[in-house]
Structures are given as structure tokens and as C-alpha cells.
Design goal:
alpha/beta, 361 residues, 47% helix, globular, 7 strands
Length: 361
């Protein structure tokens, strides 16, 4: 028997492969990666779309405002310059409160009520950013299911991005964009009460504080400073078995506010019970804000406060710009690292390091 035929009968036999030749498939040359050319932004057109009430254009503009890209920053300022004459026609309401006070629930119920009244409501919800990863959950929009479906409502979550005060660094500019888009009520939800939380007071007309009952010694635990800044205090979740304790807490806060210096000259801050679940107290809250607006506009303090806020904003941006410019200087970066090592090794004190850093200027 032929030797090769014997091998073919074995399961271990492997046939010879095809020698040489082409496999019949056609292959194109590998494509070179090309960076997509950035689209040029038509600022006047975008401004017109925002003024016409386009929520898509408003979102695009806010993203532009929040960008750290140098070209985007320049475009954002041109856009704001276009829209500036159309701003300032809203009432700006800051809403803060202890964690778990139900800020998002209150804003949804309150904002929905205002929309049903024919108001255009913009909600700027600030979520805390992680100090480790820098990320934020940005879940407020998903918790306001009823409000986001309203055609005259706009909800924009943004990360705090490490900014003190529980607001985003660009919240002021975002607020101006919303005003230019025709929103007459702007609600700014902060991340919660803290020592730096009072920053929001410097950008709103009315400052609302949400508190709870049954949270321990809440009156002593509440910072006196934050209460002195509040134009109104809402005792939230006044429903079910909590109605009586909530009404008692309202009276206690009213007594305390009576002895504190008013947050706004000419206005006596007060406290109200509210239930977002049962939709009670929401109308009274809006009536309180309307009474506040009428009272303060008559005394001209409304304009005075806004001018002071703009002036403070200007000086804050000067400080931010100086800090950014300092750390962007390559020579200063090297000097800072060198001085850090000297300080850590005990060769100089922190104060000496700082003095050496600025003595050469």
C-alpha cells in the first residue's frame, strides 16, 4: 500500500496548505486619523435662537459658558455681550437646606405650580462634585419628572466643580442666559447648608431656607449665620403625623427671626409650613415672595442689592483671574515646587516661603 495513502487514513494527517498566491480579499490602505475641524459658532444667530426661547440653543450656550477651553471662553463672552440688554427681568430665588430637607421635591412642586400659573421657570440645580474623581451624579433632572415635562420649564443640572458656596462657578452667567431666554423665575438649588453656602446669597434676590422637624436639636444645630441670610424659612414635609410638630417649629422659627437682624432691610423674614407631597403651602410661599418683591422694589433696595452683587462678582473674578494667571506661569510653578520641598524638609517656614515667592515681583 502507498505510504501516503496510509497516512491519509490516520486522523493525525494534515493536508498541505495552499502555497503562495493571494487570498482573494481586497484591502484598502489604513486611514490616517484626522482631527475633526471645529465648527465655527455663529454668535448672533445663537443669541437670536436663545431670545426666541429655544431650549436646545440655551443648553448649547450654557455648555459653552461652562467650558474651560480658551476659544470657548472668548465666544461665551461675546454671546453674553449680545444678550446682556435682555437680562435682569426675572426674580432670582436661591434655595438651600440641610441634606434630606427635600429641596428637589419642593422645587418640582413649587416650579410646577408656577408653570401652571403661566410663569416660565428655569431651575439651576447644583450637584456636589467628588473631591477624588471630580465627577457628579447630576440626578436632579431625573427626580423632577413632572416639572421637566412642562413646556415652560427648563431644568439644568451642573456640577459644583469644587466651587465654594454650593454653586457652579458659572452659575451667574448661566442665570443671565436664562433671563435672556425669557424665564421670569429662576430657582437656584444649592448642594446643601455648609459654612461656605452663603455664597449663593450674593447672586439672588430672595434666599429661601428649607428645614425639617424631628431632626434633633435643630434650632441649636442650625447655623445662626445662615438664618440671618434667609428671607424666608420653609418648614418642609408638613404632612401626615408631622403636621403638628411642623406647625410648632414654624412658630419657633418666627420667634427667632424676630430677634435676628433682617436679611434684607425693610423686610421681616418669616417662616411657613409646606408639604410638597400634599401640595400645601406652595401658594403661600409664592405670595410671600411677591410681597417681598413689591416691598423691596418700592424701597429701591432691589436695584441697590443687584448693583452690589455685580460689583462683588467683578472683584471675585479679578481674584480668580489673578490665581489662574499665577499658576499658569511656568517659572512660578517651578519655584513653588522648589519652595514646597524646602518647607517639607524644614529649611524654611511656610511664611518665609510665601514671602520669597512674592519678594521678587
Amino acid at each position: 500500500m502507498d505510504k501516503r495513502l496510509g497516512q491519509q487514513e490516520s486522523a493525525l494527517f494534515v493536508m498541505d496548505g495552499v502555497k503562495g498566491g493571494h487570498d482573494g480579499m481586497s484591502y484598502s490602505a489604513p486611514k490616517k486619523f484626522r482631527k475633526k475641524k471645529q465648527e465655527s459658532l455663529n454668535i448672533p444667530s445663537l443669541a437670536d435662537e436663545i431670545r426666541a426661547g429655544s431650549r436646545t440653543s440655551l443648553s448649547k450656550a450654557i455648555t459653552l459658558i461652562e467650558s474651560s477651553n480658551a476659544a470657548h471662553k472668548e465666544q461665551a463672552q461675546k454671546l453674553l455681550q449680545e444678550l446682556l440688554p435682555h437680562t435682569g427681568n426675572s426674580i432670582r430665588i436661591g434655595i438651600t437646606g440641610v441634606p434630606g430637607a427635600g429641596k428637589s421635591s419642593f422645587i418640582e412642586a413649587f416650579g410646577t405650580m408656577l408653570c401652571d400659573m403661566g410663569k416660565k421657570v428655569a431651575v439651576l440645580a447644583i450637584d456636589p462634585s467628588s473631591s477624588i474623581s471630580g465627577g457628579s451624579i447630576l440626578g436632579d433632572k431625573t427626580r423632577m419628572e413632572e416639572l421637566v415635562r412642562k413646556p415652560n420649564a427648563y431644568v439644568r443640572p451642573s456640577p459644583s466643580a469644587g466651587t465654594l458656596g454650593g454653586v457652579h462657578k458659572k452659575t451667574r452667567e448661566t442665570m443671565l442666559l436664562c433671563e435672556a431666554a425669557g424665564y421670569d423665575v429662576i430657582l437656584i438649588e444649592t448642594v446643601g447648608v455648609g459654612q461656605s453656602e452663603t455664597y449663593v446669597r450674593g447672586m439672588v434676590d430672595f434666599f429661601l431656607l428649607l428645614v425639617l422637624t424631628g431632626a434633633g436639636d435643630e434650632l441649636q444645630g442650625m447655623k445662626k449665620g445662615i438664618m440671618e441670610l434667609a428671607d424666608g424659612i420653609i418648614v418642609h414635609k408638613c404632612d401626615g403625623d408631622n403636621v403638628r410638630p411642623a406647625r410648632k417649629t414654624v412658630q419657633e422659627y418666627k420667634q427667632i427671626l424676630h430677634f435676628l437682624q433682617p436679611a434684607t432691610p425693610g423686610w421681616l423674614s418669616t417662616s411657613l409650613p409646606v408639604s410638597s407631597l400634599e401640595k400645601t403651602g406652595l401658594t403661600n410661599t409664592w405670595d410671600m415672595i411677591m410681597e417681598f418683591t413689591e416691598t423691596i422694589q418700592k424701597s429701591n433696595f432691589w436695584t441697590t442689592r443687584r448693583n452690589e452683587q455685580t460689583r462683588d462678582w467683578f472683584h471675585t473674578m479679578i481674584t480668580d483671574h489673578l490665581i489662574d494667571s499665577f499658576y499658569q506661569n511656568a517659572d512660578k510653578k517651578m519655584q513653588v515646587r522648589s519652595l514646597e520641598q524646602d518647607i517639607l524638609n524644614g529649611r524654611i517656614t511656610v511664611t518665609q516661603g510665601v514671602n520669597e515667592l512674592f519678594d521678587n515681583n
